[in-house]
Design a protein that fits this description.
The chain has 263 residues and is mainly alpha-helical. The protein folds into 2 domains: 7-155, no CATH class; 170-260, no CATH class. It has 11 helices and 3 strands. A 3-stranded mixed sheet has the order 2-1-3. The protein starts with 6 loop residues before the first helix and ends with a helix.
Length: 263
């Protein structure tokens, strides 16, 4: 749970025990479990010094071990918060009626501020692979929290995207659930579809406004009688077949306009 002593700390401890003996006894739990003094015991064995032991008599041996080691060790507030949070998660019970009360109790037990514990809790929940780097001091708690917070926001946005996709694009939602796409990839595809649909509607609207209004302007004139095949535009000749298709298209268009209640 706790990081090993640095070479400098181990040297200082070794010299202290060599010159002054073991000043603080090693604490064991009622069942013989080592609660405090792992490094002191190792140094005593290495120096051939007879260690002294005492037994913890309280009702919370795990809490005692956590508290005494956090307060004795030369830890950053980030390390202490991460160790305390990890320890609490490993022994979590229903002792506290709310997470807030559990956080407050942990702060009182370890002396770590609630603010730092909240940051560590965020890392535990949303970027657990950084828990050990924070404890080993290779990544700061603040940096790990920044990454965890980004992950949390991304997860929330992903859930929002998936919820929208279930309604607006269920086929893409199914691909997310099947693991074929991430929620962000599916959402981008959905947005691409929306843009493409808007583009097609824009093109269709321009075409109809151009063709139908121009055709309507020929009504009542002798424009039709002045049609001359020699001036036909390439590949755009007007024949009886195209006229029939145009009439069918206008009939279909009229039905759509009525259905949509357009003017």
């Amino acid at each position: 749970m706790f990081p090993p002593l640095t070479n400098e700390e181990l040297h200082e401890l070794t010299e202290s025990i060599r010159t002054q003996g073991l000043r603080h006894p090693i604490v064991l739990g009622p069942d013989g479990t080592l609660l405090d003094g792992r490094h002191r015991l190792a140094v005593c064995k290495a120096l051939g010094v007879e260690p002294r032991f005492t037994t913890y008599e309280g009702g919370d041996p795990d809490g005692y071990a956590l508290s005494v080691n956090i307060r004795q060790r030369n830890l950053t507030t980030g390390q202490a918060a991460m160790i305390a949070t990890k320890a609490q998660a490993a022994t979590e019970t229903n002792e506290h009626p709310s997470p807030e009360e559990g956080m407050r109790s942990l702060s009182e037990k370890t002396g770590v501020s609630i603010g730092r514990l909240e940051l560590a809790d965020m890392v535990m929940r949303h970027e657990p692979k950084l828990v050990e780097p924070v404890i080993m001091r290779t990544v700061s708690l603040d940096k790990a929290h920044e990454i965890a917070l980004t992950n949390k926001v991304r997860a929330q946005v992903s859930q929002q995207h998936l919820a929208r996709l279930r309604t607006d694009a269920p086929d893409l939602a199914d691909r997310v659930i099947a693991g074929e796409l991430t929620a962000f990839q599916a959402w981008n595809k959905h947005q691409g579809r929306i843009k493409e649909d808007a583009r097609q509607r824009r093109v269709a609207t321009y075409l109809l406004c151009d063709v139908v209004t121009s055709l309507a302007q020929t009504r009542g004139s002798r424009t039709f009688a002045r049609y001359d095949p020699q001036y036909e535009a390439p590949r755009r000749a007007v024949t009886r077949e195209t006229i029939a298709h145009a009439m069918t298209a206008l009939t279909e268009m009229d039905a759509v306009w009525r259905e949509r209640n357009l003017p």
